[in-house]
Task: structure prediction
Amino acid sequence: MGYTLDFSVVWDHMPALLWGCLGTLGLALAGMSLALVIGIFGVFARGSHIAWLRRLVIAFIEITRNTPFLVQIFFLYFALPSLGLKLNPTVTAIIALGINGGAYSIEIIRGGVQSIHKGQVEAGLALGLHKGEVFRLIVLKPALRAIYPSLTGQFIMLTLTSSICTSIAAYELTSVAQRIDSDTFRSFEVYFTVTLMYLAISWMLMSAFALISRQYFNYPTR
Amino acid sequence: MTNDSTSSVATEQPLILMEAVEKWYGDFQALKSVNLSVRKGEKIVLCGPSGSGKSTLIRCINHLEAYQKGRIVVDGVSVTDNHKAIDIVRQEVGMVFQSFNLFPHMTVLQNCMLAPIRVRGTSKSEAEATARRYLDRVHIGNQADKYPAQLSGGQQQRVAIARALCMQPKVMLFDEPTSALDPEMVKEVLDTMIGLAQDGMTMICVTHEMGFARQVADRVIFMADGQILEEAHPEIFFKSPQHPRAKQFLGEILAHH
Ligand SMILES: Nc1ncnc2c1ncn2[C@@H]1O[C@H](COP(=O)(O)OP(=O)(O)OP(=O)(O)O)[C@@H](O)[C@H]1O
Ligand SMILES: [Mg+2]
Result:
């Protein structure tokens, strides 16, 4: 083999790579937050008695889940400016990740809501709470607990998907890696390192999710 | 204990009034021209075979189910599709379910404080004081900080009763509150209900506990196929039921006990 490994290149660019990790983490956390908000409101709207709202949510889910993420992000970044809406790459990336993750989250969280015994809702209503309060105060937490593993799995997916945001030159790990690679031609070393970094980010997030779960879902079930 | 309402009964409007109420689930008629009038302080036991419409009847009272014809008035408020009316009525009507339906992510105390704070706007400290008072009353005050999953069925049902009482309702509806319980826990829940009855609460209880009916009911109402077929004092109803369906029903109930 004529290729000799030289990780000094990676070492020289370590600060940039670590900043890239932070960029990825930032995009991911912002994207997750948006996805969670979209997911929760989406589920509530999906169960609304207002027909057009319900249909709007279904259409949103169908369109988002049946088109490529790359096209979605290009649409936001390149097509929307024609309509006069120009967003910077980072904001576009967050919105794209939030929308995409949100569409999947709606379906996941909805599964959790459906797993809640309807007696819970009735008990809340019988006590005089309104539908929104029943959802927010009674249904939501046990529902999220029921689907927490799928939801956090989806959020890990979202984190990895953020690498596609390199296509609009958003600031994140993969775009940093691409730049270093094209400057140094040390593809193996760079992408090997980046692979490990993504793995580390995923593990960190999973530990954080586990911690949150222990704090937030601290009530016993039988 | 008290029954001072009897003195003024002649002029008093009923607390619950159902007039010619009809209810359909799609094509299926679950209630057929139901008439019922319940005075303040009265205890009603509602019984009848499975599917006769007992749950449907009491769930119409607090509008967990909508009805299509007739009229239901609770404490002077017409129960219609109007949100305001439904809000008012639900504040005045407490309900206890067969499956307890405690909120699993809240402690016993939080379960009891939620609605008074959110719905009545009670202060936190007052809601807590009220909750503790009612929890003591159902003999479960020492479990206030536990979660529902840590309690037995009988304890959970007593918490559910306390939770409903914390809203200080004028009426309590019970839908087979002891049917999901292990036999050894039935008594503690029935005793709680008897205590409540003795304190003068207006109650409608769907139950097949005939001992309970004998002890507290002012009237037993028998339903079958969505209709009220018989209405009588428990002694009379159990000794000499009139309607053939009631006779058959009582025969089956007694055979099981
Ligand atoms: N949501 C519903 N949709 C369609 N039919 C229903 C619904 N709820 C109840 N029914 C029907 O209405 C009838 C009355 O039901 P209901 O639950 O009031 O009976 P019940 O007297 O309480 O019976 P049980 O003793 O089994 O609780 C039954 O035939 C039932 O199948
Ligand atoms: Mg029933």
Summary: The beta strands of chain B are 16-25, 28-38, 43-47, 69-74, 77-78, 93-96, 171-175, 202-206, 219-224, 227-232. The interface with chain A takes residues 62, 64, 87, 90-91, 93-95, 97, 99, 101-106, 114-115, 118-120, 147, 149-150, 160, 163-164, 167 of chain B (CB under 8 Å). The longest strand of chain B covers residues 28-38. Residues 1-10 of chain B have pLDDT under 50 and may be disordered.
